[in-house]
Write a structure and sequence with these properties.
Rossmann fold, alpha/beta
Length: about 575
Amino acid sequence: MSPFPSLGQISFTKFTSPEATVEVLSKVVPGQTTGLDIETALSAAGQPPPLWNDLLAYDPPLANARTAAGPQVAVDNELLRASRDERDDRFLLLWVALNLADPRLDDIVREVLTDSQGHLKPEEVNASRLRPILDKRHADSMEDLPHDTKATSNILSLMERCRLIIPAKHGGSIVGIDRPLPTRHAVPGAVTLISERLAEQGFLAAPGREIDLALSIGANAWLNLSTDEFRAAFHSRPIASQVQSQRAALPNSLVELASQLRRKGQVVLQGPPGAGKTYIAKQYVSWVTANRSSDSRLQEIIDSLPANERTVAGISDEVQRRGLAGLWDIVQFHPGYDYTDFVRALAAQPHGEGVTFVPEHRILSLICAIGMELERRAYDIELVLVLDEVNRGDIPNIFGELLYALEYRGQAVATPYTVDGDGSLTIPDSLRVLGTMNTADRSIAVIDYALRRRFVFLDVASTQDPITTYGFDDEATRDAALYLYSATADMLSGAASGLQVGPSYFLADQDGSASSLEVLAGRYVYEVLPLLTEYELEGELDPNVVTGLRQRIGLTDGSAQLAHAKELVDHLVGKPWTNQGDSES
């Protein structure tokens, strides 16, 4: 319970209409409107008489708060300012003012309706559960706690009508939370209001410490926020909506990919390791998001939002507020990845004395739901979901019935789980699915045919062009990279399976005290040679050919990797490409 004295006592057995109360408060003129005027206006609006004193302070201070409206005039405060300016936070500030005014309501909210973090407990926002809890608290206390049916309904109704939640209802009774509503926009006003009202009682916050005063009385729970979320909302106040970003012209290197994505909806970039498949995918994402890849990533947006805004509607609001041209995310497939990781799943949540399992979105279901919501709002955006190493996953087990939905965009497909009241999932036309696949991976032999039929497969060839155009800090390093690439390609050219090693392994920059040439040698010894060894062990390469390559680049048989790295640096310093006929090609 709050350590500060009560400002009043709300009548919980009489219904308080937030709409009517805010309307009356919007007409108050500080310094002119008297307490009697406010009491009369509230009474005429059918509001409980105590509210005139619970919500406002007067000048001069009231001699008898319960018996005299007197000639005193209202003092301005944040609730009045929000009401007369018709601000979005005015109803939430009324909720804050009611909690601040009556410690009984504060106690119910913080001790019964919210958890230790300050988040609402959906199972307790239920008339049939709340009523016996309040009855017991009334029986255990000498205070006049609300305990009848009407008081319970009024408290839950206030949470709805003050814009804290959209409740789930059975008949006319609130039985849970359908969706929490955003509250962080009300935090700055709430901190100001709390500071003003407590200052009237002689509790002054040190300059710059007003938020600490608000948190000391647990005000974060009144707004369904943790202390960290409350503090973050105060220090990073939401900025006004931004104009939607505009993309530059599509680069020529992405034209074919963009064309196939528009036509088919899903593409797999396939090629040898190091060919630049993921790089191309990221380049496409960068273009789609108008070079805003970081703040357009779905997971980054989710992480930036308080828990009560991590909903389809809340995320969609944030996408529009940021003015994003694209929304994207990436997942990596692997043998243990399945439908419940990718589409939808049952998640365990504490409930009373036990645990209940609640259906939840996973990445595909969530990005699809956001896409459909933004489509409903007529907000034009492209969504991209990158599936890294798509061939390593068990495709039927991961996609399930959604393989059909990939082909028939815009058509609802039933799923085993109902999320947000919808038992189906629709893949919107705005979603592009972009996979990457390593053609050297032996698992491609068993890639699901149904996936092949629904994706376009674009080859990403291994060429030395990226090495030629890369911004090396030393031209000698570029020559060395071209030399190693050429030597490796020559050795692999005789492999029956057409194995290749992509150019990304041969790109290097200075790293601390290590020169770019030393970094290049290290990458070759620690990444390329082990890859070639794998090919050898799998029977794809003749061991004698690999041995010949090692000898050609100056490596001694039997040496440790560190020794090999030093040997390779020495070999490259000698500029072998200047005195060998099979130099850079």
